[in-house]
Amino acid sequence: MAGAPGTGGTGSPGGSDPGTGGTGIFSHGSISAFGSVVLNGIHFDETGASIRINGASSSPGALRLGMVAGVQGERYADGVSGKAESIEVWSIARGPVTAAGGGQFTVLGMKIKTQGSTFLEGVASASAIAAGQWVTVWGLQADAQASSWVATRVAVGSAGGLVVATGMVSGSKEQRLLNGIRLTGGDAEKLHSGRVTRVEGKWDAEAGSLEVKSDHDMDVRGENVGSSALVEIEGVVTSLLGGNRFTLGSVEVDASADASNYAKLKVGSKLEVYGTWQGQVLKATELEFEDD
Fold this sequence. Notes:
Blueprint: E1 23-33, E2 37-39, E3 42-45, E4 50-53, E5 56-57, E6 68-75, E7 81-89, E8 93-101, E9 104-107, E10 110-113, E11 119-121, E12 134-141, E13 148-157, E14 163-172, E15 175-178, E16 181-184, E17 196-204, E18 209-217, E19 230-242, E20 245-248, E21 251-254, H1 259-262, E22 270-278, E23 281-289
Parallel strand pairs: 1-19, 3-7, 4-7, 10-13, 11-13, 16-18, 21-23
Antiparallel strand pairs: 1-2, 1-6, 2-3, 4-5, 6-7, 8-9, 8-12, 9-10, 12-13, 14-15, 14-17, 15-16, 17-18, 19-20, 19-22, 20-21, 22-23
C-alpha cells in the first residue's frame, strides 16, 4: 500500500471522552489508522503515553502506519476506544535485500512476504523492491522457525550503518546462529537458543557474519498485564497443535471457546485473537480472520 508515510495520532477519536474505569488490556499488532492510534480495531488515545521505538524514547509523531506495536492500557466500555499507557514498537529487519521477486524478498536470511495491505515508503510498489536496496521492515512472524515474516510496513532508505535481523536463535553457546547467519562478538554467547530475538549489529558481508551490538526478546507470551487483563494479538498461524490449540507466531493459543473457527484454521491464516493469558498460553475467547 504505497503512499504518504502516515504520521502519529492526535488524541481520542472525535474528541470524545468515554470516561474512566476501563478494563486493562494488552494489544499487539500493526497500526492501521490514526486520529488516535488504531490497533486491532481499538482507537487508543495516546496522550501522555510512554512511547518507545526500537528501545528509545519517542513521540506520537514518529509512529507510522503498519508499524507493529505493543500497547498496554485500558479499553473503555464501548469496546472500540481506550487509553494507552505505553506503546512499544520494534522493527524486525534492516539491511540489504539479497533477493527479490513475486512480492517477496530476503534480508539477512529472513524471507519476507508483502501483501496488498503492506504499507510502503520510498518505493511505488512491492514489485519495485530489488536486490541491493536497503530496507527497514515491520511485520508478523509467519513460520515456526521465525525465519519467514509477513511485512506490514517496508521503508526503502539509504544504505549503511547497523543492520537488524530477527529470528529463532539456534546453535551452541560457542556458536550462535540466527536464520543460518553466524553471530559473533561477546554478546552472542549470551543469547538464549530457541527464543525469537531481534539482533542489531555490524554486518560483515564477506564473512557472512553478524557482530551483535544489542538484542531484544520479541516473545510476547505472558506479557505482564495481569491474568484478568484482556489480550488482543494480531498474527499468522504457524502451526496446528490439535485439541483446539495452535500457535500464532510463537504464542500458543487455546481456542476451545471458539472451536468452530478453529476448524477453519490453516497454517498461514492471518488472525486477530482475543482472550486472556493463562500462564504463557493465550486462552482465546474469539478468533477473527483478517483479509490479506
